[in-house]
Amino acid sequence: MPEFTPLFMDQLHDLFRWRRDVRHFRRDPVPEPVLDELLRVACLAPSVGLSEPWRFVRVDDPRRRDAVRQDFTRCNADALSDRTGADALRYARLKLAGLDDAPHHIAVLSHPEPAQGRGLGRGTMPQTTTWSTVMAIHTFWLAATAVGVGVGWVSIIDPERVRAILDVDPTLELVAYLCVGYPAEVASTPELERRGWERRAPERREWIRR
Amino acid sequence: MPEFTPLFMDQLHDLFRWRRDVRHFRRDPVPEPVLDELLRVACLAPSVGLSEPWRFVRVDDPRRRDAVRQDFTRCNADALSDRTGADALRYARLKLAGLDDAPHHIAVLSHPEPAQGRGLGRGTMPQTTTWSTVMAIHTFWLAATAVGVGVGWVSIIDPERVRAILDVDPTLELVAYLCVGYPAEVASTPELERRGWERRAPERREWIRR
């Protein structure tokens, strides 16, 4: 096993600190070999039974992108209609979607009952399959941050509608729709915290004891 | 933003490669300050709306540990009874549980509807809350690997029964039961692959195009 130095540890913690949910992108594309390498690294993520249930989809077709953008707009309007006053304003100002600027759109889907892995470890907790895909997304996100590439996870969409827009195997489950590109601004503090939406809670950093 | 060097990138990829699901532990404990630091780092994980839904529970009570071990044994026996012949033998030999040797047991639970985050981003995809906790677990796992601490995720348990054993807020959802300690052996290849259970699929490392 490689020896990880204290310097590496510091840098790793920096990476966790600077891994932001990016909403503001430059429009210049990320070179294809860089994206290919990020996908290869993402596949090093853990998966239950070694099932690798993730499916990474590059969405390049402008009509599909436009349909996803429309779905986001509709879902975002619904979310806004539930809120009132200052909250709603703040919510609208968060400008949640980097959908318009990000040069790359990547949908990540998950096979709910993969043959690979032969069912190991998911009998009593079948959700561990989807969670494996979540960890692959997180791995992609961290590896991207390390090469200066930003990732924004759009969840204000209807997953079933977006899956239909992408015209992929209907048994696949949409887990994430990612905007990917070089960030137009960088920060170590979450945008939601900078904009006064929410703060981290110190009590999360304390153990519960049993 | 810190500059991440090519050397750091190589080490990061090494970290992803060597982050194993550990099943064989030494019995000596991990120093408390190390565990505390791992928890702090885990809380740098992304969370939808900055909701930080994760709750990390240290399970030290021998009676609770024993009850969890019994639950695992029962679920593992059920899983075995579903399989036949060579598969069943291989399955049994995988020795899935480090439960007996690992000095630390850490349960990770998730609040399904946290007030923190104020519902942002989870309207159409409420599962993103649980997925935030999954990313905190993955962050813990990576940070642990970097300091030579092994983590094994036990999913062959009944999550509702284990939650009851832990006697925590019944609204919390059990996501993972982790065995934590120094690994008795290290490898860059998944144990499931070394033992012939499953292999990684090269086609996962190719984009699907839309």
Give a quick rundown of the structure.
2 copies of one chain form a homodimer. In chain A, helix 2 (32-42) packs across helix 5 and helix 3 (62-81) packs antiparallel against helix 6 (159-166). Chain A has 7 helices and 5 strands; from the N terminus they run ααβααβαβαβαβ.
Describe, in plain words, how this protein is organized in 3D.
Chains A, B: This is 5,6-dimethylbenzimidazole synthase. The structure is a homodimer of 210-residue chains. Chain A has 210 residues and is of the alpha+beta class. The first copy, chain A, has a single domain (24-185), classed as NADH Oxidase. Chain A contains 7 helices and 5 strands; from the N terminus they run ααβααβαβαβαβ. The first copy, chain A, has helices spanning 6-18, 32-42, 62-81, 85-93, 128-146, 159-166, 191-194; strands spanning 54-59, 104-110, 150-154, 173-181, 208-209. Chain A has a 4-stranded antiparallel beta sheet with strand order 1-2-4-3, sandwiched between helices. Chain A is globular, with a radius of gyration of 18 Å. The mean pLDDT of chain A is 91. The interface between A and B is large, with 97 and 97 residues.
